[in-house]
Design goal:
The complex is a heterodimer of chains A (about 375) and B (about 290).
Chain A (H helix, E strand, L loop, with lengths): L3 E10 L3 E11 L4 E5 L6 H9 L6 E6 L2 E2 L10 E4 L11 H11 L4 H14 L15 H13 L5 E5 L7 H18 L2 E6 L2 H7 L2 E6 L2 E6 L1 H6 L4 H6 L6 E10 L2 E6 L2 E4 L5 H8 L4 E7 L4 E3 L7 E10 L3 E8 L2 E8 L9 E6 L5 E4 L8
Parallel strand pairs in A: 3-8, 3-9, 6-7, 7-8
Antiparallel strand pairs in A: 1-2, 1-4, 4-5, 9-10, 11-12, 11-14, 12-13, 14-20, 15-19, 16-17, 16-19, 17-18
Chain B lengths: L1 H35 L1 E4 L4 E4 L3 H8 L1 H31 L7 H13 L2 H11 L6 H8 L14 H26 L3 H10 L5 H29 L2 H6 L11 H11 L3 H28 L3
Antiparallel strand pairs in B: 1-2
Classes of the chains: A alpha+beta (about 375), B mainly alpha (about 290).
Amino acid sequence: MATLTLKNISKIYPGNVRAVSEVNAEIGDGEFVILVGPSGCGKSTLLRMIAGLEEISGGELSIDGRVVNDVHAKDRDIAFVFQNYALYPHMTVGENMAFGLKMRKFAKSEIDHRVTEAASILGLSEYLQRKPGALSGGQRQRVAVGRAIVRQPKLFLFDEPLSNLDAKMRVTMRAELIKLHKRLQATMVYVTHDQVEAMSMGDRLIVMKNGIVQQVGAPLEIYNKPANQFVAGFIGSPPMNFIHCEVEKRGNDWFVVSEGLNLKMPLSKFHALATTYQNSDAKAVLGIRPEDIHEKSGEPEAVNARVEILEQLGGEVIATCSLGSNEITARLSARTQARTDEQIELVFDLERAKLFDAASGRTLV
Amino acid sequence: MNSRKDNLMAYLFLLPACLLLGVFVLYPLLQLLWVSLNEWNILKDQMTFVGVKNYQAILAEDGFRQALLNTIYYVAVTVPLGMAVSLGLALLLNDKLRGVGFLRTAVFTPFVTSTVAAGVIFIWLMDYDRGLVNAALNWLGISRINFLQSDQWAMPAVILMTVWKQAGYNMILFLAGLQSIPEMYYEAAAIDGAKRGWQTFRYITWPLLWPTTFFVLVISIIFAFRSFEQMFVMTRGGPVGSTTTLVYYIFDKAFKFGNMGHAAAISTLMVLIVLLITWLQFRGQKEFEM
């Protein structure tokens, strides 16, 4: 178990391609941290730098206070679970799991003990003599995890380990990994592009885009207080709605105005609005999550939209509606009376809405 | 009804391949077997059925026994040595160094050179008085060796030439094999603590390269069994029969002595030996399957 410190970590490929820029993070002992972002955001490169599979171009990486920039992967005392598992095809499941211990010259009895124990935790006991080729995807995934845990390393690194599994298996393995983390209390860094995985598994998320960290925080903190429009849009499913609008001050009140939309902002936001916009009108982006849009039930102020698509999910209905030239998604109750191609009156819960800077995307209000 | 038509179509499609195989493989093989059961002197052009007499005669011959032993010696040294050299070269040239393409081409060139030309060059290289090899030995303080005129050294000289000539081809096969091993296994091994170099080679490269190695082994043995040109050019099977391999012996029997029956009998025996070795190899291959 260990702490991990990233200080201005950068990766620059030949031709001055910046894959990772100046990443700073402090990962505590026993923490489960998720690196999340769209493909090509540099999250895997960052993880591989932590592992020692990729050279660090700039900055300082420390494990337990020791700078490990120039320490070989095998000497960093980490375990890495690969996206494609990377199980040695010529070794049995047992040999795969034992390999790391064998290379580190552990006694045979100790190796057997640890492999047997890991196999029983992961439900692999009866497959120890099989080759990886004879296993299902989920079982291979377990072997890859088993290979990591027998080592009892300081740090576990996972590179999109569930992305090759089918949807059902992914949910099962997700739960198993959470349980495993609870049981081992080990420090884990986990890369995924799946925001559901990120939200449900991590103690803390590091959201990345184009090699730059956008926000670091607990899942709910990131969900409720996104640092910018990108984070707001990336975390949450269906994603947050964004509506380009004007912020207008009329008398003492603040309004957001767009096509088919003329909404008074709630009192609680006035202070922030006044500080940000200093009494003048400005362009902005209104961000509101689908679950913060409801069907009208008695409220005075509603927005008229036209229902385009209804996705019945059983417990709820996802409605895609057009509002002027904007398209918005609302999460409605299963009992909704909404019909496709008909008008619907929607209420925006502006207490929970965000305003982003139209140019930079920064969260303003 | 329909299935009969389908069957007919299938046979029609198979026909060209069967015809080719029949005309160029099966018929000659049967013909060979037939000739081996006859006495046939090409000068007289007259065949007499003699049953297994040719085989009895062959097996009693010292010349045949010597040729067989020479062949075993030649194959047993050429194949492992050639494979080790070409694998070593492949490992060296698998890096993304500058100029590696040139080096690979250079190593491959002997393979596309005519064996006759290469053989002549080796005769010069190994010449007792003016050869480069002996000059080098002399410089190192080792006494000169009359390679091609010595019944001890002629075979090693031929083997050396063969290994040199074949290494490039095997190297290309090994290179392809090395490059088909996914990088992730090396990364996993690095994290598992395998040291670069021997441990990585022993636990990752070697086992994952096995399909290629096996293929190279099979074709190397077949190539080695068929070797003829280098002996013909460099030593004429001599001195005192020390480089007469089975194929060379067949050639002697058939075209020097005109004894087609004997030549066919030896050829048949050789086919059987190669078949046996290939069968053993494929049985061995199963043991290693992943």
